[in-house]
Amino acid sequence: MKNVYINSVGSVSSQNTTDDADFLKEIISYNDTTIPALNPNYKDFIPPAAARRMAKGIKMSIVASKIALQKANLETVDAIITGTGMGCLHDSEKFLSAIIDNNEEYLTPTPFIQSTHNTVGGQIALEIQCKGYNFTYVHGSNSFESALLDAKMQLELDEATNILIGGVDELAAHTILLNKAIHHIKETPVESSKVLNSNTKGAIYGEGANFFVLSNKKQDSSLAIVADLQTFNTLPIQSVAEKAREFLLANNLHPSEIDALILGNNGDVEFDTFYNHLATTDFQNVQQFVYKPWIGEFNTASSFGVLLATNILKTQSAPKAFQMNNIVSSQYKTILLYNQYRGENHSFTLLRQC
Hints:
Blueprint: E1 5-12, E2 31-32, E3 34-35, H1 48-51, H2 56-71, E4 79-83, H3 89-101, H4 110-113, H5 119-128, E5 133-137, H6 143-156, E6 162-169, H7 173-181, E7 190-191, E8 205-206, E9 208-215, E10 224-234, H8 237-249, E11 260-263, H9 273-279, E12 287-290, H10 292-295, H11 302-315, E13 334-341, E14 344-352
Parallel strand pairs: 3-8, 4-5, 4-6, 11-12, 11-13
Antiparallel strand pairs: 1-9, 1-10, 2-7, 6-9, 10-14, 13-14
Helix pairs in contact: 2-5, 8-9
């Protein structure tokens, strides 16, 4: 089977990731319970008249996807595969609020049409005139991983040459209130650098869109190879390290051969124990990174982890603010990512240097 290369990335997040010149050079620290994504200059990518009718998640995705395509020197792709946990929340809330406010009468259909989870993939396809395979995965915090796995299998079997994949989720006011009520969001603001030591329930929530052009043809600009990916619905804490070992063994690797471990710690005292177990057992002598304190937690936040890993493999350097331990690798050839959310939807992703 053919190798699967990440040939380019495009990102809109709460950090400086839109511009190559500023890409993760100065890490922005936050002190809040939610972290909104930084708005790029949307009119550079979307006609203003069209942008006014789009929710933030759609606009972020179009910008991120167009950046990824530009970097890959492509105008269109063979397929578009999107992952999203909650879809276009803003339009969903807008439509449901209108139902209540208007007594279920005189409803405008536009917010309903744009609230569906596959709106993002459809809008991107319209923008780049892609008439190929277009699929959206809504698998909670494994949504992006499902999109990645689908693309990986198609490329390995030579069913496509270039595939655009991405993960996107947005913040919305009423959903934030609901998550605060059930203690999924922290009650009080926490500084980004202190999130992991907050010792409180809940996470800092965020939003963003991260898109990648995957191909079975290597380019000079290729960033990384997607070596393997495995997901689990549930895992007991004591099995996490064992599953990681088995995953690496299937790829003829030992934990000591991993150059960096990227974890999805979000500061939730109840569920960071999964990450801590892995970090303090087989990988205690491996350099470790975290990213969610700086971008927030959302269902497709792991796509930012892949973005971080590809940047590390390509540049052979990493933002110091993201480092969790004091170990520094001499080189980065193989990176393992582990993510889960509230004890469910576990994933292991293995990336290699091109």
